[in-house]
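Reagents: none. Just compute today. PAS domain-containing protein.
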Amino acid sequence: MDTLDELIRRTEPSALLTLDGTIRSLNASMAAMLGRPAEQCVGHDFLRMLPETQRASGENLLTHGATTKTVAMRVLQFPGPGSASVVSLVEARPVEDPAGGPRLVWVHLVDARNDLGGLLVPFKLAAAAADLGLWMYSPEEHQLEWLGGAPALAALFPEASVSFSSMVRRVHPDDREALGRIVRSTAAPSPTMWPARSVGSSWAMAALSRSLGCSATRRSSRRADRKCWPR
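Predicted 3D structure written out:
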């Protein structure tokens, strides 16, 4: 196991928290994720720096990370730099202070480039639990791979993978331009909420991330007012 200093010197956003969630130390990357300078983070409650809708999930993560020997992971939304919120997989695990201090919790963002399979696990579970579908988009091949989820959506996309053009044809004409803009975007990979209609005029709310994939839920009503990105 790395020393405490080595954990903080890692390139991915990392922080060391006390068991009550107070930030003891963090690196510049984590401070940027929290949308504040590092000096305004140390000594403050980590959970209070998350969006209000994320605090319950964050508290659950810290509780499991501090008390269990298994890996604790949750998908959390961070404020991010400026107004760009970021959704990422976060791991928490207990660490001992070699100087004999109290036990700490190390929280860090999982690098999707190195652990793509691990990143997708909570998204798959959340998608299935919330009656969503999950796809992975490959911009190089212009392909969408179905990763599982709601049976109603699986019926709309029965193939294991489909071309992006095929996906577009199954979307209502009024929503196709918006879908294209999202896929072509080079912005930060935070999910974008997108109200979409199928060709048959059934409503769906889709969330698409350039690096993580997209999810959607089919709606029988005329309104698409449900947030659908797995959290």
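The longest strand covers residues 86-95.
Action item: order primers for follow-up constructs.
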